[in-house]
Fold these 2 entries.
Entry 1:
Amino acid sequence: MDRTATLLGLLEERVLVLDGAMGTAIQSLGLGPEDFGGPEWEGCNEHLSLTRPDLIRDIHLGYLDAGADIVETDTFGGTALVLGEYGLAGRAPEINRAAARIAREAADARSSPDRPRFVAGSMGPTTKAISVTGGATFDGLVAQFRDQALALVEGGVDYLLLETCQDTRNVKAGLVGIREAFGLAGRELPVAVSGTIEPMGSMLAGQTAEALCTSVSHVPLLYIGLNCATGPEFMADHVRALAEMARTRVACVPNAGLPDEDGRYLETPASLAAVVGRFLERGWLNLVGGCCGTNAGHVRALAEVAARARPRRELPPPRFFVSGIENVEVEESSRPLIVGERTNVIGSRLFKRLIAQGGYEEASEVGRRQVKGGAQVLDVCLADPDRDEGEDMERFLSFLVRKVKVPLMIDSTDAAVIERALKWCQGKSIINSINLEDGEERFERVVPLARRYGAALVVGTIDEDPVRGMGVTRERKLEIALRSHDILVRKYGVQAEDLIFDPLVFPCATGDAQYLGSAVETIEGLRLIKQALPRSRTILGVSNVSFGLPPAGREVLNAAFLYHCTKAGLDLAIVNSERLERYGSIPEEERRSADDLLFRTSDATVAAYTARFREASSRVRADPATLSLDERLSRYIVEGSKDGLVEDLERKRAEAAPLDIINGPLMAGMDEVGRLFNDNRLIVAEVLQSAEAMKAAVAHLERFMERTGSAGRGVVLLATVKGDVHDIGKNLVEIILSNNGYRVINLGIKVPPHDLIEAVRRHHPDIVGLSGLLVKSAQQMVVTAEELSTAGCSVPLLVGGAALSRTFTRRRIAPAYHGTVLYARDAMEGLDLAHALRDPARRAQVEVLIRKEEASLREPVAERPAGLAPSGRSSRVGLLAEAPAAPDLDRHVLADCPLDEAWNH
Ligand code: B1M
């Protein structure tokens, strides 16, 4: 059996152990200049493979004797780029080959048929991170990594390991270089990638572990892992994230803690192995090892815990991710994702002018504005026939990638331009687009690029038919989509999850006879494609539908069309995220007129629609003066408008307390926003505007809220949990607690457990408050509670948010936590609970309440109705259904409780 097969077989059976640090092991030997071959090479660890191979061999043997299955070559800085700093660039191949041979000899010396040992060819990130430090080009790095990889393969390594990765553009260059090396060597070896997440929670160039995982998912890796930067405790969130999403094996190779001010690593073998052992118990890992500061003792301890563990075997189901610096999932609850269309020289005159004037930086501001306005992906098109598209693309992207974190959609028909663009993207971008217009020619040119750099593909429903090439009817759209899917998946080996079908939008009101009725064909074609190809996704350039109509009519028609397409299952919508009419706010009559045009297109409906919108000012809108004050207040939130908001808030203040205004008409507005969003009548960009209006209203009212005199009631740490951006409720809790004598430390949104643990250690709070509105946030609270407990925290936990219920809290969160856990339905209940927790007399009552809740959970339960709204999206009400079936213990339970007075404030 060859070594690759043996390695793969062993990984099935058990958790394998990598060695410990090379760098700190060399440091600890106290070598002098002569060991390095002279003072000019002192500190060049890689050179030791030529000057003191005995020492390097001994380090390998020491790790193998301690129980390592795999040793890494002494080639972390083995590219010519890094060795060049010592004047050794020309000797890079020789050094890498020598290092590989030394490791090979050591591994072979300790191998037996029962206990084979392996060599990983270590490839560090170099001293340049393209996106951070600059000083290197993508193509330059490809050549560096190619040469290093070739020498390592020639020297006899078993696999190549791109490690301590800090910038995914470097990683991608490494992966391309390795592929080229395999071509030159005439054989392939497995490849692994190991990223480094800094204490700030991301790699140096900004990506999280999830985004890294998505960005390299185009390569069938031996494993993906994390190494260096910190001790294992800090890695927990990131390793868990990899274990939840990686469709390959997962490795964890921590430092022996963070170095102290003297550069010493303080994590002992026992403490390191204890934390890694917990990860193993949770089934997260396939390989473990040690990075900086670890020695043979650490490896021995890791080998012991690894021997008792079972490797992670079950892969998570394939999901549809794309990434920029951020990771984005294209899934049911987030559709349609908004693709900002203004960074496109064909669609935006302003953008085209800026590019033509060389104002690349200003043009990148257009992208930033789109993101601020709600775009979750950016379409980038620089195809101006009068200009050099490739040059413009690169110069524009050089600014854009520093300004936005969202995934990019590279919109070009020129494969060379697409390739230049992809070299600028850390993430997994989307290529827009390919089709069968010239047979498979475009597939042949573009698919290899998607596989080389990692990208999803938009596939237009066009084929080579000279007459019916563009799929106009629903049947043709489906037929072309199915054929494209078949060719791409079977012949080109593309994953179905990397395909996004575009059933094409045609202008429905230009009078062109061939497009009469095309809008409804697009909607129905989309529906058919979604049904037939459920693993792939769909996209449409929405604004095309209204081409040729008066501006006000375009916005209404675009909104109506988007609404119907979303109902039919649309996953991504290319729109101007800053200018879209709110479907929910369009008067009934206008909506009907838009529907007439979309579903019953004829010369008559086009004429009627055009006439209605020719005079934008003639549009009839509900007169705000006819609405009551409460209705107006709700409307500001629903429409996301601040125009007149403060004045009306002032009017309302004459009759109601600030908190009652928030909980009354403003919350009613927010609930309506939720309902409209759920019903696809609002898109994320619009919900964002509503959130802004709500925040403005709360900020205005805050200053009029009553403050109690009693200060120093306690310290509360507040956070919205990891993965969740909703913060309006949490901020309201902050205001109310601070107004009532608590010192609140608000950690913000998307707070991972580790940050909370750190904050608990720093601030010693009396209460930790967690907020979260998504269904997955309820689950994240369980994880957070577990992690806090594991870190020894037992401070009372207050949890709240729309997706939570008292039942879920008691059944799932409380058992995961060592301390008291209480659910607050709203901010005022949160305040009452905080008071109760801080008042020794009432603490006993809290225990009574908890026991009552627990007792009630033991009673027979009624099934909750399933929680999906007709659209298939989880409804707000339905959120609770994902908690284990049980009656929600709301007010009716509390009403029986002696604390009732307290809860009813
Ligand atoms: Co989003 N969102 N959202 N959203 N959003 C919901 C939550 C949703 C229910 C809407 C829906 O579909 N009907 C739905 C969740 C469905 C699910 O999980 N299955 C949803 C979704 C799907 C999403 C996205 C996935 C959409 C997308 O991308 N396509 C996305 C997720 C992003 C992410 O988090 N990773 C997303 C994004 C957004 C915006 C950014 C656009 C915006 C948030 C802006 C912001 O917060 N800065 C937004 C908004 C505004 C909403 C709705 C419409 C309103 C939320 C809100 O602010 N309510 C919401 C629907 C709804 O809830 N009606 C929805 C007002 C606020 C005061 O109430 O936060 O519940 P709430 O706080 C209450 C109580 O819950 C409690 O007290 C407050 C009252 O006093 N409370 C606590 C809350 N935290 C507490 C902590 C405590 C105690 C009490 O102690 C510590």
Note: The first strand starts at residue 16 and ends at 17.
Entry 2:
Amino acid sequence: MTAARPLFRAPPDALDAEALRRDFPALNQKIHGFPLAYLDNAASAQKPRAVLEAMTRFYENDYANIHRGVHELSQRATNAYENARKTAQRFINANAADEIVFTRGATESLNLVASSFSRAFLREGDEVVITELEHHANIVPWQVLAKERGVILKPAPITPGGSVDAAQVEALLTKRTKLVSVAHVSNALGTVLPVADIIAAAKKRDIPVLLDGCQAVGHMPVDVRALGCDFYVFSGHKLYGPTGIGVLYGRKEWLAEMPPWQTGGDMIESVSFKGTTFREPPARFEAGTPPIAGAVGLAAAIDYVSAIGMERIADYERRLADAARAELSKINRITFYGPRDNHSPIISFNLEGAHAHDVGSILDRCGVAARTGHHCAEPLMERLGVPGTTRVSFAFYNTPADIEALCRGLEKTREIFP
Ligand code: PMP
């Protein structure tokens, strides 16, 4: 932070980002001669040493395949995996650990629900309501279903400000609506959706609601029981955990009625050529050898962010993103997408006269990692009338120095594209 231009004043009880960033080895490097300003956290977050060490410890001491072994290592690994489930349960305040299904990521969680829930509960002519701002992972599984099974996919429009109006979601609900599946937070715009109102509208009609929490869980407290949602999905890697692990939270009543998705391995109760029986959830949905070390890493990540406190993370990131937006507003001919209020620490913008990919490349040369393009939300980009945007997304380890690096990079872009 320069003395002349304080971007951001944190309250005394704010987290100490400078100290926390030292927990993340990857942040301590230069890119093209500049200190790395990592602002691509919505795509994936960096990993604290606590996560890396927990996984190494696990592989070095306790690793074996789980559940089927009577030997010591298998039991230790099973305990670690099942304890990780309890950690995830507590983190989002699920009622029971059995309501936590480990998957390979949010995309798999969404595909699991689309495939399994639909076989149990959706018939031709039934409807699934989403919104226009969904990530492809919460569009395409439903679209495939629509094509194959005659299910009708109804996207609620976004408002001109890049948000979603719960009343417009409600207006789409009919007797044939069997599921509302919406983002908790938009990955492309940072919009925090009015999920409480959307859930209330759905509940009036006994319609279950799935929330795609990929961009929420790492940035705000999430309580699935307080929210009252029926399903909640997220990926470990955006929550400072490893890749290859994700969570599907599903209320027991739903999971119990849903058929297996993938089959084989751990989800089996017994097999004969007369027929096969399946285990109860969550095992029923965890076919094959699961991402065991991934679960251990995810639990370490959850412990790590919980020790900082999700409220404090939310508060700090909010202040940081507001400061960044105020600074970016000073740049000539910049257009922001998404709401000014009620947003997560994601800022999406374009510089008139400069293609987003050029902006991203110049930022990279200045040591700034930002993301450019459609952010896997092409229908949203179409609605906004742009091929893509530049997106910067903050984490609690970002500091005002990262904002300054970003602004310097954009000033450089303006020199090249005046
Ligand atoms: N939904 C949202 C809102 C996301 O941001 C992402 C990741 N960009 C996904 C779903 C898919 O997550 P993953 O690629 O980890 O499966």
Note: The radius of gyration is 22 Å.
